[in-house]
Amino acid sequence: MLTLIEAAEQIRNRRLSPLELTGECLARIQRLDPVLNAFITVTEDIAFEQARQAEAEIAAGNWRGPLHGIPIGLKDLFDTAGVRTTAASNQYRDRVPTEDAELVRRLKQAGAVIVGKLNMHEFAFGMSGVVSAFGPTRNPWNTERITGGSSSGAAAAVAAGMCLAALGTDTSGSVRCPSALCGIVGHRPSRGLLSMKGVIPLSTSFDTAGPMARTVHDAAIVIDTLTASANYASLLEEDVSALRIGIARKSFFDDLQPDVAACMDQAEDVIRELVSQVREVEVPLDAFRTIFDAEIYEYHEAMASKTPGLYDARTLYRVQKCAGTSATAYIRERHRLAKFRSAAERIFEEVDVVITPTTPAAAPKLADLEALEIPDVRPFEVKCLLRNTAPFSSLYWPSTSVPCGFTGDGLPVGMQISSKPGGDSTTLRLAYAYEQATEWRKKQLGRL
Question: Residue 306, Cβ neighbours under 10 Å: how many?
Answer without folding.
Answer: 9
